[in-house]
Amino acid sequence: MRRLLIVTLVGAALVGIGSTSASAETIGGEQLAQRGVQVNLGPKAKPVPDIAAETWILVDATTGTVLAAKDPHLQRPPASTLKTLTAITVLPQVTLDQTYVATTKDTHLEGARVGLIAGKSYTLEQLFYGMFLRSGNDAATAIARAPGSVKKTIARMNEVARDLQALDTTAKTPNGLDRPGQVSSAYDLALIARAGLARPDFARFVGTKMFNFPGQGSSTYAIYNQNRLLMGGFRGAVGVKTGYTSNAGRTFVGAATRKGTTLIFVGMGIHEGSADAARKALRWGFKNHAKVTPIGALVLPLSATQTGEAAVTPEQPSGESDQELATAGLDIPSAGDPMAPWWFWLILILAAFGLFVGWVGSRRRQMQGGNRGGPHTPPRIERPYRPYQPR
């Protein structure tokens, strides 16, 4: 009888809070919602270096875990780092040998340009090199126009962001030039970079140091990658993208691979050299990633979880749950119902207390059984992260 009462109380609590729990959750883990620098240092871990940025994140792209961060869900203008979203949106829609004839609209853009010539034909491969190495806004706009129209590509970019669960991101341009309401976050840009690096074509573009771009007639000219982390010889550097506007300040997505582990650093509103900030974070990460307890995780795309891909959330037991058994046939009011009687609120309080006592007992049993994992440890992704394919 006692067990049935506890199950009933727990069931009532779960039904009552079900309507609000989803909105209260933070994508990637609750610790990512806390302000300031977040890290769970182990006994032998070194302190996180001082990184002069409004927001930043350091993630292990191999396992999907977040090693350290500062306000990772803070929304800020992304500048040219948004071109990573343009790339993972358009790459599945085109072939790299597909040709595109540049328009006058493509060539008349503010900011960085690779030098498209109106009326000249380019392959999509050439345009992607122009977008990533030279950060060409003209190339980014041409890439967005290639599948149909810039407007449709921007709409598709936002659909891809929703599928990735990059919910802090709203795209208004394909090139990252400042527009009212165009924002992203360090967490979202890490999601996007991870999805991109899983694609061999994306990884090749962001990791290329020099490319001969078509000029007048049959001539070419060399364009060089602007990523100083990559060009400066940082061991294992593989990309990814620089960014700057007067509104966004310095933004940066950098990644490196050592001994089979790929780390991604994202900084926004950086107040020092972007590559300098990335070097400090990545060096610390490679030395300490096995000595810290992750503070969160990079979630998988919704389309991946719907098709059976390994998820970064614990599996739920199959069959009827205790909640379903306890609440079958009962008319239990919702916690959001202002007319809920006093006894319902008492049940919720008692149920919450029962859940807490049960959790404490469970943790004691785990610790006595030899489990030393911290409460913030997210499950690891045991299979390689597959290339992202938008729905």
From TrEMBL:
Keyword annotations of the record: Cell shape, Cell wall biogenesis/degradation, Hydrolase, Membrane, Peptidoglycan synthesis, Signal, Transmembrane, Transmembrane helix
Is Signal given among the entry's keywords?
Answer: yes
| Family matches, as Pfam families | Peptidase_S11
* Record Gene3D superfamilies: DD-peptidase/beta-lactamase superfamily (3.40.710.10)
The answer to whether UniProt assigns keyword Transmembrane to this entry is yes
| Location of the Peptidase S11 D-alanyl-D-alanine carboxypeptidase A N-terminal domain | 47-269
Q: Name one GO molecular function term.
A: serine-type D-Ala-D-Ala carboxypeptidase activity
Q: Where are the transmembrane segments?
A: 342-362
**Residue ranges, annotated region (Disordered):** 366-391
GO biological process, alphabetically ordered: cell wall organization; peptidoglycan biosynthetic process; proteolysis; regulation of cell shape
The record's family statement is:
Belongs to the peptidase S11 family.
Instruction: Please give the name of this protein.
Output: Unannotated protein
Organism name? freshwater metagenome
